[in-house]
Amino acid sequence: MPKAYDKGKGWSQPLEWMAGSTAPAMPVTVAPRADTVAYLLGSSGGFTVEARDAGSGELRWSSKSWTPPSPVEEPSADGAAEAPSVATVEQDGREYIVVWAHGMEGKDELHDGKEVVRLAVFPADGSGDGTAPARQVSVPVDAPSGVQVRDGGDGALVTWEPVGSDTYGVSVDLTTGKRTAFGYEDLDMPQCGPASCIGGGKVVGAGGEGPVVSMETGGFGIPGRWFNEDFAPEGVWKDPYGDEINGRVTAASPAHVAAVWRVGEAGLDARWKWSVHDARTGELRAQVDCDAEDVAEQGSLRERASGGTPELSVSPDGRYATAGPAAFDLETGEGVCVAGDGDRKEMHLLSVTNDGIGYGYVTEETEGPQTGVQVDLAGGEPEALPAGTDLPFRPLRDTALFLPLIGGGDTPAVQVLHRR
What we know:
five-stranded mixed β-sheet
């Protein structure tokens, strides 16, 4: 473990139902306000949620058994059928644990059924055993791939890659169950001309005055409200003819959008700048010169499998954020870059703590364990961690969530360790 964490002080929980499975799923989540870790346990009768105090490991609440919808397709020989996932969503200042799965409802010998994403909602600060969901919602989808459920900034945001449908996503109010669909017309960006925003887009957030939209050809914002070019970092390139939009979303969180911008005209010597913007207003919060064009894949197994928008990792107190090779201090507006430079290898930052320590790994290694790295955002120079070091996946108040494999086998485990 990194020196900041005490290997002998914490708790763990094996996830035996995931042993040997290649199914894309995210079986654990954290609720920073409640300082809670929640995870899924599987059984022959369905799945249950357990939520534990991050510091003590004490069980705060557990759920009744929950049954996901039936698979859209039959499971393959390696068991890679879609599996349920769990996410944390904040709404009206309260955190909720949302269990979700993609599948079919109402399908039998006489009915084709309908494809849905089923959500079960639990207050993160709940208590008791055998807790029933506060609400269950089924969202109809047409989604052969790319299904994601995340905190959209104003309820749960369900998105997918649509086929034969004009609906690209749905925002779900967790207190009422109301669903707000985002269709093709909602992705139209009137702030840029028809030659500039050719092609489709996707919803990466749903708070504020409308959906936060990322256009495939470049450009992002809330249609009719704000557009990224109005909040561009100083010195980035702008097409004098207005035919090409600079700025492309690399990652998103409920409150922020991370983007990469080209500096100078296109060419082999193109340089890049990274930025973070307020998702509700477009305001530029931080920026850094960073010569890497794309964010490395991150987030859940499901995100990596589907190619969905990566999650912008934010420190528990909201001051720091990381996206691939870039890390930002949202208070000072400055950033740190760990992209490949000269003979330095490319790195990817996975998480950041309240004291501004970012953790990640070298991305150029394809064989053997990846080299872990840590970087102090105040200094900016990364340092290699000892071989075999596990990385904090989600830092919390006084602890951090790790996701190692236990016993060198195929059984993942939730592991929470205390800071020294």
